[in-house]
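Good morning,

Attaching, inline, the backbone tokens for the sequence recovery test we're adding to the shared suite. The designed sequence is right after.
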């Protein structure tokens, strides 16, 4: 009964006048195979050579607290190298909200995946008991903490005792460990109200905000030893769901912009035609 109900709800979107409209099938995300390692920087120019899909976001109106939806679309690009997968999300935002406090909220974004390689898709609304969903959530305040740029340190980065120069990418992960902070939290969900954070995370995150736009990259091994993780297989299909929170608009918890359907994704086979970045700003397929 739950699955039938979820699928019925997944096939409709809430329009601004309250009427229900049938949703179009989302465009498939192509996870491009690259030979020289996945793109892990949010500002790597090589991303421009990767096909982009743009997905509509809408206010979360399925469960309380309802609301959000100030971000109406999000762009997705993805790569894999046979060992790792990296996904870049980009969306427009008038301000970078990195603080959390009284009437202060952070910007955030999340990607959800079915656990394992299910033959039947779980509910796109936080999964269900039989078919859970794993969620990777990037949060701007955690990212700021990890880089030594939160609160007062956001303006005066040397004030917090640990500062990473932009050139020091090789030690970024270690320093985040010293600070006890990481920009990504992983959750497992088996329906509304069951969101459970994991103590350890296998997902790395990186972000950049400029010119009124967030660029966020989430990166992980294609498979892990955890049986409750998504599994990505070169040459095979996967699927994902998306969510964005705009801190300036007081979006938090259930108040968010979301996709209402699973978005199909397909990993290129290893050794397939790939997009490579060349010096001089041109991308070519091989």
């Amino acid at each position: 009964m739950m699955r039938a109900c979820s699928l019925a709800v997944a096939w409709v979107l809430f329009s601004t006048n309250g009427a229900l409209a049938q949703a179009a099938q989302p465009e498939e995300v192509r996870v491009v195979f690259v030979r020289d390692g996945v793109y892990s920087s949010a500002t790597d120019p090589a991303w421009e050579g990767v096909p982009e899909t743009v997905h509509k976001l809408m206010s979360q109106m399925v469960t309380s607290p309802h609301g959000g939806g100030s971000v109406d679309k999000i762009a997705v690009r993805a790569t894999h190298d046979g060992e790792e997968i990296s996904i870049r999300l980009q969306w427009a935002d008038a301000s970078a909200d990195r603080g959390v406090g009284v009437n202060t909220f952070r910007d955030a974004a999340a990607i959800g995946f079915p656990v394992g390689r299910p033959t039947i898709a779980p509910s796109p609304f936080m999964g269900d008991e039989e078919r859970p969903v794993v969620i990777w959530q990037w949060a701007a305040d955690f990212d700021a903490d990890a880089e030594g740029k939160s609160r007062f340190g956001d303006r005066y980065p040397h004030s917090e005792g640990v500062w990473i120069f932009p050139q020091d990418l090789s030690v970024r992960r270690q320093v985040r460990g010293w600070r006890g902070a990481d920009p990504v939290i992983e959750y497992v969900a088996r329906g509304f109200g069951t969101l459970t954070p994991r103590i350890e995370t296998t997902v790395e995150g990186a972000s950049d905000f400029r010119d009124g736009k967030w660029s966020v990259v989430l990166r992980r091994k294609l498979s892990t030893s955890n049986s409750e993780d998504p599994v990505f297989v070169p040459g095979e299909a996967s699927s994902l769901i998306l969510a964005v929170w705009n801190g300036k608009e007081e979006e938090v918890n259930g108040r968010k912009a979301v996709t209402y359907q699973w978005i199909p994704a397909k990993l290129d086979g290893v050794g397939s035609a790939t997009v490579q970045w060349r010096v001089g700003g041109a991308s070519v397929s091989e």
